Amino acid sequence: MRPLTVLARPWTERRFLHRHYERLLDALGDRSRFRVVPLRELRDAPRDRVVVGLRHDIEERFRGGLETAALEAERGLPATYFILHTAPYYGDVGWRRARHDESLIAGLRRLQEMGHEVGWHNDLVTLQCVHGIEPREYLAGELEWLRGHGIDVRGASSHGSYWAHRLRYHNNYFFADFDHEVHEGFPNKYAVQVGERRCELSKGTLREFGLEYEAYHLGEDRYFSDARFDADGRRWHTDGVDLDGLRPGDRAIVLTHPDYWDPSVARKAVRTVFWSARKLVAGERSWKIH
User: Fold this and answer.
1) If you count Cβ atoms within 10 Å of the first and of the last residue's Cβ in the chain, which end, N or C, has fewer?
2) Based on C-alpha coordinates, what's the Rg of the chain?
3) What does the DSSP assignment read for 72-138?
4) Cβ distance 49 to 35 under 8 Å?
5) DSSP code of 226?
6) Which of 132, 140, 136, 129 is nearest to 176 (CA)?
């Protein structure tokens, strides 16, 4: 990400404010038209109304996820929050570092208390090929730890990390369930070349880890995401959801990233400056490749 692009976000993404997201939530509050469910219920939900799954990938700012979750809880709308195990809030990338951070567990419990679902944001190929950690044993251990603390993790969603784009793999390549798929631009399905080292990918299945679904494989009819950009480089916004174009029986997923949304433009500006300064000091791509 270019520094000037990031610093311009308070202007270019000035509409990515909570009050704008609340417009969508208020519309979805019409129970006569919409049935809002966590993603684990999307496939089997009654289709007498439009079925909507609100999905959030928390990539760097756990606090932002809690803020969005509160807005939804005020309206009785459940959502699904995917936590990223390579994110700073989860702990230093390493062997089960998260188990030492009870504040994370408290935050995840808070999400569930508000009526939301917690899922696993999958960066497992990165974990193996970049950080040198065996992903099968790691995933089993982390899920055991999370579930042992009452966090009911049933679903996963693939993370599109910097390294995934640089080394041309898809994090879903960890799951053998999707061996029939090759994503365009990501040809390294079974092995990844990392410098002079060839990384043969470990594989597992959703079922063996007690996972019921992958968020990109739910068979929805419509999918909206603020990770998408138009031809002019503008990020998709929730104002672009055409609710009138949805019909009873349709299943739609709306994905937003709390990292992009703030209570105010002033808060966004301050956060952007501090985030940029931290990245400048630490080095955005300073992770060591083992």
Assistant:
1) N
2) 19
3) HHHTT---EEEEETTSGGG-SSSTTGGGG-HHHHHHHHHHHHTT-EEEEEE-HHHHHHTT---HHHH
4) yes
5) T
6) 136
Residue 137's identity, in one-letter code, is E
Element (H, E) at 274: helix 265-282
The DSSP H or E segment spanning 66 is helix 62-74
Task: Output the 3-class SS for 3-55.
Answer: HHHHHCHHHHCCCCEHHHHHHHHHHHCCCCCEEEECHHHCCCCCCCCEEEEEE
105-122 exposure pattern, b = at least 16 Cβ within 10 A, e = fewer? bebbeebeebebbbbbbb
Q: How many CB atoms are closer than 10 A to CB 284?
A: 13
Cβ pair 142, 98 in contact under 8 A: yes
Digits of tens for pLDDT over the chain (290 positions)? Answer: 555 455 566 656 788 999 999 999 999 999 999 999 999 999 999 999 999 999 999 998 999 999 999 999 999 999 999 999 999 899 876 555 555 578 899 999 999 999 999 999 999 999 999 999 999 999 999 999 999 999 999 999 999 999 999 999 999 999 999 999 999 999 999 999 999 999 999 999 999 999 999 999 999 999 999 999 988 888 999 999 999 999 999 999 999 999 999 999 888 888 877 766 666 655 544 433 43
The span from the CA of 51 to the CA of 41, in Å, is: 10
Write the DSSP string, 137-193: HHHHHHHHHHHHTT----EEEE---HHHHHHT--GGGGBGGGTT---TT---SSEEE
Q: Are strands 117-122 and 80-84 parallel, antiparallel or unpaired?
A: parallel
